[in-house]
Amino acid sequence: MSQRILVLPGDHIGPEVVAQASRVLKRVAADFGLAIELEEASIGGAALEATGVPLPDSTLERARAADAILLGAVGGPEWDAVERDLRPERGLLKIRSELGLFGNLRPAILYPQLAAASSLRPEAVSGLDILIVRELTGGIYFGEPRGIRTLESGEREGYNTYVYRESEIERIGRLAFESARKRNRRLCSVDKSNVLEVTVLWREVMERLAADYPDVELSHMYVDNAAMQLVRAPKQFDVVVTGNMFGDILSDAAAMLTGSIGMLPSASLDVNSRGMYEPCHGSAPDISGQDAANPLATILSVAMMLRYSLAAPAAADAVEAAVSRVLDRGLRTPDICTPQDQQVGTVAMGDAVIAALEANTLEESA
Ligand code: IPM
Ligand code: MG
What we know:
Elements: E1 3-10, H1 13-32, E2 36-40, H2 44-51, H3 57-65, E3 68-73, H4 88-98, E4 103-109, H5 122-125, E5 129-135, E6 147-150, E7 156-159, H6 166-181, E8 186-191, H7 197-210, E9 217-222, H8 223-232, E10 239-242, H9 244-257, E11 267-269, E12 275-277, H10 296-308, H11 313-328, E13 331-332, E14 342-343, H12 346-365
Helix pairs in contact: 1-10, 1-11, 1-12, 2-4, 6-7, 8-9, 10-11, 11-12
3-isopropylmalic acid (IPM) binds next to helix 4.
């Protein structure tokens, strides 16, 4: 029986990068004899225009029925004036929440070929391989009450609520400890327990869990210090676990260390490791429609899908090797291009990855 992949292109560069990643997925599936079927549905601003809501029920139903989801990016300035509940981002938050995709894995890996594109000195980042485990369906992103109210004085006040239940902390904690076990067995939990009670509890639960994982070394860091350490000496980290908002911020910072946010893939998993795969970058309206977006983060997200949801680790390795080979050839989209490199567009980058997959297959069969 074939596995059903739901493709949600979204807005601006979303459809551009997803088109390339879908080609790569189809190609690698054919090479490795994986039976997959791709279908497409709308989300974000595109869905809002077509149906009046950023996540139509039909999209959600098909997402529930799918074996895995590939998402581009949502949002854009044309929807800035839309009422808050209908904003494209709400579609993304709702699908994460409805599908219970609490575990967001964001690996920040520096491809050696891109050391010069990093904003840090090559010696600070060479060999960098961090995994950020971000809680994705709780915390201040979802806490109630929330809103903007008018006080008696007539002044308006915005408010959100930062909450985590023990079970939510434990669930993301276990995913992080398990992930650390598969890597260098070091886990740094990031919180703000010097100020926020919710993260006092967070730290307590992480400590308690540590007893079940004696082979993993657990440390704690305040989020301000973690931001500083990420740009000072990022190689000290192996796995970082943190809440929704801190994870959003730290993963963008970590992305820049790898040369470009255009290189960072992600997996968002539910309790059964069913997942949605998306680049960490946004919809980049400033470069959309110019064939200038870097499709590699989405292509690398396909590799994560093959590994975590489709049980095809060899195919995942092949995609990652193909990306590396393309970088070896000096091909770069504008975001990672230095004067020594050959600049290419989104489609040409997709072509190059597919050509590299073919070259790898030829070498293996030779
Ligand atoms: C991300 C994005 C989203 C988030 C936005 C688009 C809602 O920044 O995936 O990191 O904040 O989670
Ligand atoms: Mg973000």
